[in-house]
Protein backbone atom coordinates (compact mmCIF):
# COMPACT_ATOMS: atom_id res chain seq x y z
CA UNK A 1 0.00 0.00 0.00
CA UNK A 2 2.85 2.37 0.82
CA UNK A 3 4.46 1.62 -2.56
CA UNK A 4 1.20 2.46 -4.33
CA UNK A 5 0.93 5.75 -2.44
CA UNK A 6 4.50 6.69 -3.31
CA UNK A 7 3.98 5.71 -6.96
CA UNK A 8 0.78 7.74 -7.17
CA UNK A 9 2.46 10.84 -5.72
CA UNK A 10 5.43 10.39 -8.07
CA UNK A 11 3.19 10.12 -11.13
CA UNK A 12 1.16 13.11 -9.94
CA UNK A 13 4.32 15.22 -9.77
CA UNK A 14 5.49 13.95 -13.17
CA UNK A 15 2.18 15.13 -14.63
CA UNK A 16 3.08 18.68 -13.57
CA UNK A 17 6.39 18.58 -15.44
CA UNK A 18 5.37 16.78 -18.66
CA UNK A 19 3.38 18.42 -21.45
CA UNK A 20 3.35 19.69 -25.00
CA UNK A 21 5.10 22.89 -23.87
CA UNK A 22 8.66 22.37 -22.66
CA UNK A 23 9.05 24.15 -19.33
CA UNK A 24 12.32 23.85 -17.41
CA UNK A 25 12.04 21.84 -14.22
CA UNK A 26 13.53 24.71 -12.21
CA UNK A 27 10.72 27.07 -13.29
CA UNK A 28 8.01 24.59 -12.34
CA UNK A 29 9.62 23.98 -8.95
CA UNK A 30 9.96 27.72 -8.37
CA UNK A 31 6.29 28.21 -9.22
CA UNK A 32 5.16 25.45 -6.86
CA UNK A 33 7.36 26.91 -4.12
CA UNK A 34 5.81 30.35 -4.66
CA UNK A 35 9.06 31.86 -5.88
CA UNK A 36 8.01 32.53 -9.48
CA UNK A 37 5.51 34.99 -10.91
CA UNK A 38 5.75 34.04 -14.59
CA UNK A 39 2.20 34.27 -15.91
CA UNK A 40 2.68 31.83 -18.80
CA UNK A 41 4.18 29.15 -16.57
CA UNK A 42 1.44 29.63 -13.98
CA UNK A 43 -1.25 29.42 -16.65
CA UNK A 44 0.10 26.14 -18.03
CA UNK A 45 0.99 24.42 -14.75
CA UNK A 46 -1.74 25.63 -12.39
CA UNK A 47 -4.63 25.98 -14.83
CA UNK A 48 -3.92 23.10 -17.21
CA UNK A 49 -1.58 20.43 -15.88
CA UNK A 50 -2.66 20.53 -12.23
CA UNK A 51 -6.41 20.15 -12.97
CA UNK A 52 -5.60 17.33 -15.43
CA UNK A 53 -3.60 15.49 -12.80
CA UNK A 54 -6.35 15.87 -10.21
CA UNK A 55 -9.02 14.69 -12.67
CA UNK A 56 -6.90 11.68 -13.68
CA UNK A 57 -6.28 10.76 -10.04
CA UNK A 58 -9.96 10.95 -9.08
CA UNK A 59 -11.33 9.39 -12.27
CA UNK A 60 -8.92 6.47 -12.37
CA UNK A 61 -9.42 5.68 -8.70
CA UNK A 62 -13.19 5.95 -8.91
CA UNK A 63 -13.47 3.72 -11.99
CA UNK A 64 -11.20 1.08 -10.44
CA UNK A 65 -13.32 0.92 -7.28
CA UNK A 66 -16.50 0.78 -9.38
CA UNK A 67 -15.04 -2.12 -11.35
CA UNK A 68 -14.17 -3.95 -8.14
CA UNK A 69 -17.75 -3.64 -6.88
CA UNK A 70 -19.20 -4.84 -10.17
CA UNK A 71 -16.91 -7.88 -10.21
CA UNK A 72 -17.91 -8.77 -6.66
CA UNK A 73 -21.63 -8.25 -7.14
CA UNK A 74 -21.81 -10.29 -10.32
CA UNK A 75 -19.10 -12.82 -9.32
CA UNK A 76 -17.37 -12.27 -12.63
CA UNK A 77 -13.80 -10.99 -13.18
CA UNK A 78 -14.85 -9.57 -16.57
CA UNK A 79 -17.62 -7.43 -15.13
CA UNK A 80 -17.05 -3.70 -15.10
CA UNK A 81 -18.99 -0.56 -15.83
CA UNK A 82 -18.09 -0.59 -19.53
CA UNK A 83 -18.68 -4.27 -20.35
CA UNK A 84 -22.02 -4.37 -18.53
CA UNK A 85 -23.35 -1.30 -20.31
CA UNK A 86 -23.24 1.23 -17.46
CA UNK A 87 -20.84 3.45 -19.41
CA UNK A 88 -23.14 3.14 -22.40
CA UNK A 89 -26.09 4.27 -20.28
CA UNK A 90 -24.17 7.32 -19.10
CA UNK A 91 -23.12 7.99 -22.69
CA UNK A 92 -26.74 7.87 -23.80
CA UNK A 93 -27.64 10.50 -21.22
CA UNK A 94 -24.81 12.73 -22.40
CA UNK A 95 -25.80 12.10 -26.02
CA UNK A 96 -29.33 13.30 -25.30
CA UNK A 97 -27.94 16.37 -23.55
CA UNK A 98 -25.46 17.19 -26.31
CA UNK A 99 -27.08 15.95 -29.52
CA UNK A 100 -30.74 16.71 -28.87
CA UNK A 101 -30.14 20.03 -27.14
CA UNK A 102 -27.28 20.79 -29.48
CA UNK A 103 -29.67 20.56 -32.39
CA UNK A 104 -31.68 23.54 -31.17
CA UNK A 105 -28.88 25.73 -29.85
CA UNK A 106 -25.10 25.64 -29.67
CA UNK A 107 -23.37 23.02 -27.58
CA UNK A 108 -21.38 25.76 -25.93
CA UNK A 109 -24.57 27.04 -24.38
CA UNK A 110 -25.36 23.54 -23.12
CA UNK A 111 -22.01 23.32 -21.36
CA UNK A 112 -22.27 26.86 -20.02
CA UNK A 113 -25.58 25.90 -18.42
CA UNK A 114 -23.30 24.05 -16.06
CA UNK A 115 -21.79 20.61 -15.85
CA UNK A 116 -24.79 19.84 -13.67
CA UNK A 117 -26.93 19.37 -16.79
CA UNK A 118 -24.55 16.87 -18.39
CA UNK A 119 -23.81 15.19 -15.05
CA UNK A 120 -27.48 14.64 -14.24
CA UNK A 121 -28.11 13.29 -17.74
CA UNK A 122 -25.19 10.86 -17.42
CA UNK A 123 -26.33 9.79 -13.95
CA UNK A 124 -29.89 9.11 -15.10
CA UNK A 125 -28.65 7.06 -18.06
CA UNK A 126 -26.25 5.05 -15.88
CA UNK A 127 -28.87 4.36 -13.23
CA UNK A 128 -31.43 3.20 -15.79
CA UNK A 129 -28.96 0.60 -17.05
CA UNK A 130 -28.15 -0.34 -13.46
CA UNK A 131 -31.82 -0.97 -12.73
CA UNK A 132 -32.16 -3.04 -15.88
CA UNK A 133 -29.13 -5.10 -14.87
CA UNK A 134 -30.61 -5.66 -11.42
CA UNK A 135 -33.85 -6.91 -12.95
CA UNK A 136 -31.89 -9.18 -15.26
CA UNK A 137 -29.86 -10.48 -12.31
CA UNK A 138 -33.07 -11.57 -10.61
CA UNK A 139 -34.24 -13.46 -13.69
CA UNK A 140 -30.93 -15.00 -14.80
CA UNK A 141 -28.93 -17.36 -12.64
CA UNK A 142 -25.78 -17.56 -14.74
CA UNK A 143 -23.23 -14.76 -14.81
CA UNK A 144 -22.48 -15.43 -18.48
CA UNK A 145 -26.09 -14.67 -19.42
CA UNK A 146 -25.96 -11.46 -17.41
CA UNK A 147 -22.72 -10.43 -19.09
CA UNK A 148 -24.24 -11.06 -22.51
CA UNK A 149 -27.27 -9.02 -21.44
CA UNK A 150 -24.99 -6.11 -20.62
CA UNK A 151 -23.29 -6.36 -24.00
CA UNK A 152 -26.66 -6.43 -25.76
CA UNK A 153 -27.75 -3.36 -23.79
CA UNK A 154 -24.60 -1.60 -24.99
CA UNK A 155 -25.41 -2.49 -28.61
CA UNK A 156 -28.98 -1.24 -28.25
CA UNK A 157 -27.83 2.04 -26.70
CA UNK A 158 -25.24 2.45 -29.46
CA UNK A 159 -28.05 2.15 -32.00
CA UNK A 160 -30.07 4.85 -30.23
CA UNK A 161 -27.02 7.13 -30.10
CA UNK A 162 -26.46 6.56 -33.82
CA UNK A 163 -30.05 7.61 -34.54
CA UNK A 164 -29.63 10.73 -32.42
CA UNK A 165 -26.38 11.53 -34.24
CA UNK A 166 -28.08 11.20 -37.61
CA UNK A 167 -30.65 13.87 -36.77
CA UNK A 168 -28.37 16.13 -34.68
CA UNK A 169 -26.48 19.18 -35.87
CA UNK A 170 -22.92 18.85 -37.16
CA UNK A 171 -21.59 20.86 -34.22
CA UNK A 172 -23.34 18.61 -31.71
CA UNK A 173 -22.03 15.44 -33.39
CA UNK A 174 -18.47 16.76 -33.49
CA UNK A 175 -18.55 17.71 -29.82
CA UNK A 176 -19.99 14.33 -28.83
CA UNK A 177 -17.39 12.41 -30.85
CA UNK A 178 -14.54 14.34 -29.26
CA UNK A 179 -16.05 13.78 -25.83
CA UNK A 180 -16.37 10.04 -26.53
CA UNK A 181 -12.62 9.65 -27.15
CA UNK A 182 -11.95 10.33 -23.48
CA UNK A 183 -9.73 12.99 -21.97
CA UNK A 184 -8.73 14.35 -18.58
CA UNK A 185 -8.11 17.85 -19.93
CA UNK A 186 -10.38 20.82 -20.50
CA UNK A 187 -11.98 20.83 -17.06
CA UNK A 188 -11.62 24.21 -15.33
CA UNK A 189 -10.72 24.54 -11.69
CA UNK A 190 -14.21 25.80 -10.88
CA UNK A 191 -15.71 22.43 -11.84
CA UNK A 192 -13.28 20.27 -9.87
CA UNK A 193 -15.25 20.46 -6.58
CA UNK A 194 -18.29 18.85 -8.22
CA UNK A 195 -16.27 15.96 -9.67
CA UNK A 196 -14.30 15.57 -6.45
CA UNK A 197 -17.45 15.47 -4.32
CA UNK A 198 -19.11 12.89 -6.60
CA UNK A 199 -16.13 10.52 -6.60
CA UNK A 200 -15.31 10.91 -2.91
CA UNK A 201 -18.97 10.48 -1.94
CA UNK A 202 -19.37 7.41 -4.14
CA UNK A 203 -16.14 5.70 -3.05
CA UNK A 204 -16.87 6.58 0.58
CA UNK A 205 -20.33 5.05 0.35
CA UNK A 206 -18.85 1.89 -1.16
CA UNK A 207 -16.20 1.66 1.56
CA UNK A 208 -18.85 1.90 4.28
CA UNK A 209 -20.42 -1.23 2.76
CA UNK A 210 -17.10 -3.09 2.43
CA UNK A 211 -18.04 -5.53 5.21
CA UNK A 212 -21.20 -6.44 3.31
CA UNK A 213 -19.17 -6.93 0.13
CA UNK A 214 -17.02 -9.47 1.98
CA UNK A 215 -20.17 -11.32 3.03
CA UNK A 216 -21.60 -11.30 -0.51
CA UNK A 217 -18.48 -13.07 -1.77
CA UNK A 218 -19.51 -16.07 0.35
CA UNK A 219 -22.88 -16.34 -1.37
CA UNK A 220 -26.31 -14.81 -0.89
CA UNK A 221 -27.53 -17.50 1.50
CA UNK A 222 -24.52 -17.18 3.80
CA UNK A 223 -24.67 -13.37 3.70
CA UNK A 224 -28.36 -13.44 4.56
CA UNK A 225 -27.66 -15.68 7.54
CA UNK A 226 -25.18 -13.05 8.72
CA UNK A 227 -27.95 -10.45 8.71
CA UNK A 228 -27.11 -8.78 5.39
CA UNK A 229 -30.13 -7.32 3.60
CA UNK A 230 -29.22 -8.52 0.12
CA UNK A 231 -31.54 -6.34 -1.97
CA UNK A 232 -30.83 -3.18 0.03
CA UNK A 233 -27.06 -3.68 -0.02
CA UNK A 234 -26.92 -4.44 -3.76
CA UNK A 235 -29.13 -1.49 -4.59
CA UNK A 236 -27.03 0.81 -2.41
CA UNK A 237 -23.78 -0.40 -3.98
CA UNK A 238 -25.13 0.05 -7.49
CA UNK A 239 -26.33 3.53 -6.53
CA UNK A 240 -22.84 4.58 -5.39
CA UNK A 241 -21.26 2.98 -8.46
CA UNK A 242 -23.73 4.90 -10.62
CA UNK A 243 -22.69 8.20 -9.01
CA UNK A 244 -18.98 7.53 -9.64
CA UNK A 245 -19.41 6.27 -13.21
CA UNK A 246 -21.84 9.04 -14.13
CA UNK A 247 -19.55 11.77 -12.80
CA UNK A 248 -16.43 10.44 -14.49
CA UNK A 249 -18.22 9.74 -17.77
CA UNK A 250 -19.83 13.18 -17.84
CA UNK A 251 -16.54 14.96 -17.30
CA UNK A 252 -14.01 12.71 -19.06
CA UNK A 253 -15.98 10.57 -21.48
CA UNK A 254 -16.47 6.78 -21.38
CA UNK A 255 -13.04 5.67 -20.12
CA UNK A 256 -12.66 1.93 -20.56
CA UNK A 257 -10.58 -0.93 -19.13
CA UNK A 258 -9.42 0.82 -15.92
CA UNK A 259 -12.26 -0.77 -13.97
CA UNK A 260 -11.39 -4.15 -15.50
CA UNK A 261 -7.61 -4.28 -15.27
CA UNK A 262 -6.90 -2.67 -11.91
CA UNK A 263 -9.05 -4.88 -9.60
CA UNK A 264 -7.53 -8.02 -11.12
CA UNK A 265 -4.00 -6.67 -10.72
CA UNK A 266 -4.68 -5.56 -7.14
CA UNK A 267 -6.02 -9.00 -6.19
CA UNK A 268 -2.90 -10.61 -7.61
CA UNK A 269 -0.71 -8.14 -5.73
CA UNK A 270 -2.42 -8.29 -2.33
CA UNK A 271 -3.79 -11.85 -2.52
CA UNK A 272 -6.78 -11.07 -0.35
CA UNK A 273 -10.53 -10.86 -0.68
CA UNK A 274 -10.95 -8.31 2.11
CA UNK A 275 -12.57 -5.27 0.56
CA UNK A 276 -11.39 -3.03 3.40
CA UNK A 277 -7.95 -3.44 1.82
CA UNK A 278 -9.02 -3.91 -1.81
CA UNK A 279 -11.06 -0.69 -2.07
CA UNK A 280 -8.26 1.74 -1.09
CA UNK A 281 -5.73 -0.35 -3.03
CA UNK A 282 -7.92 -0.24 -6.17
CA UNK A 283 -8.34 3.52 -5.79
CA UNK A 284 -4.56 3.98 -5.61
CA UNK A 285 -3.94 1.54 -8.48
CA UNK A 286 -6.57 3.16 -10.69
CA UNK A 287 -5.13 6.59 -9.97
CA UNK A 288 -1.63 5.37 -10.89
CA UNK A 289 -2.85 3.86 -14.16
CA UNK A 290 -4.82 6.98 -15.13
CA UNK A 291 -1.91 9.30 -14.27
CA UNK A 292 0.45 7.09 -16.28
CA UNK A 293 -1.87 7.15 -19.30
CA UNK A 294 -2.17 10.92 -19.03
CA UNK A 295 1.63 11.30 -19.09
CA UNK A 296 1.87 9.03 -22.13
CA UNK A 297 -0.95 10.89 -23.89
CA UNK A 298 0.93 14.18 -23.57
CA UNK A 299 4.37 12.74 -24.33
CA UNK A 300 3.70 11.16 -27.72
CA UNK A 301 3.38 14.42 -29.67
CA UNK A 302 4.49 18.01 -29.17
CA UNK A 303 1.41 19.34 -30.96
CA UNK A 304 -1.51 17.29 -29.69
CA UNK A 305 -2.70 15.04 -26.85
CA UNK A 306 -3.76 11.47 -27.50
CA UNK A 307 -7.23 10.43 -26.34
CA UNK A 308 -7.12 8.35 -23.17
CA UNK A 309 -9.15 5.54 -24.73
CA UNK A 310 -6.32 4.89 -27.19
CA UNK A 311 -4.02 3.96 -24.28
CA UNK A 312 -6.17 2.19 -21.65
CA UNK A 313 -6.81 -0.87 -23.91
CA UNK A 314 -3.05 -1.44 -24.02
CA UNK A 315 -3.28 -2.23 -20.31
CA UNK A 316 -6.74 -3.78 -20.24
CA UNK A 317 -6.59 -6.20 -23.17
CA UNK A 318 -3.65 -8.22 -21.74
CA UNK A 319 -5.58 -8.57 -18.49
CA UNK A 320 -8.63 -9.98 -20.29
CA UNK A 321 -6.43 -12.43 -22.20
CA UNK A 322 -4.79 -13.51 -18.93
CA UNK A 323 -8.22 -14.16 -17.42
CA UNK A 324 -9.34 -16.18 -20.42
CA UNK A 325 -6.11 -18.16 -20.49
CA UNK A 326 -6.16 -18.99 -16.78
CA UNK A 327 -9.70 -20.36 -17.00
CA UNK A 328 -10.15 -19.92 -13.26
CA UNK A 329 -13.43 -19.11 -11.60
CA UNK A 330 -13.83 -15.86 -9.76
CA UNK A 331 -13.08 -16.05 -6.04
Approximately what portion of the residues adopt beta-strand conformation? Answer: under 5%
Secondary structure tally, helices: 15
How many DSSP-defined strands? Answer: 0
Helix content: over 70%
User: Which value, in Å, is the CA radius of gyration?
Assistant: 20 Å
Structural features, described:
This protein is an all-alpha fold and 331 residues long. 76% of the residues lie in helices and 0% in strands. It is built from 15 helices and no strands. It has helices spanning 2-17, 25-32, 39-73, 86-104, 107-112, 115-139, 143-167, 170-180, 192-208, 210-216, 220-225, 230-252, 258-270, 275-299, 312-326. Helix 13 (258-270) packs across helix 14. The longest helix has 35 residues, at 39-73. The chain is globular, with a radius of gyration of 20 Å.
Quick take:
With 331 residues, this protein is an all-alpha fold. It has helices at residues 2-17, 25-32, 39-73, 86-104, 107-112, 115-139, 143-167, 170-180, 192-208, 210-216, 220-225, 230-252, 258-270, 275-299, 312-326.
Amino acid sequence: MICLIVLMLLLFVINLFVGSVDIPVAEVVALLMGQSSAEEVALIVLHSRLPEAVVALLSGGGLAVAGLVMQTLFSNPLADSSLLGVNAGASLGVAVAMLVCGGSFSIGEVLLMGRWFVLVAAFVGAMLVMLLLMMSAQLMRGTLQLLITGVMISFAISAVIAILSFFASAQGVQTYVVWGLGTFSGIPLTNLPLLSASVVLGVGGIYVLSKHLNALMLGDAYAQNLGVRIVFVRTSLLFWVGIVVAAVTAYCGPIGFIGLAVPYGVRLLFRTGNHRKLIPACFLGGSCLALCCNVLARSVSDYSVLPINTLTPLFGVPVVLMLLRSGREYS
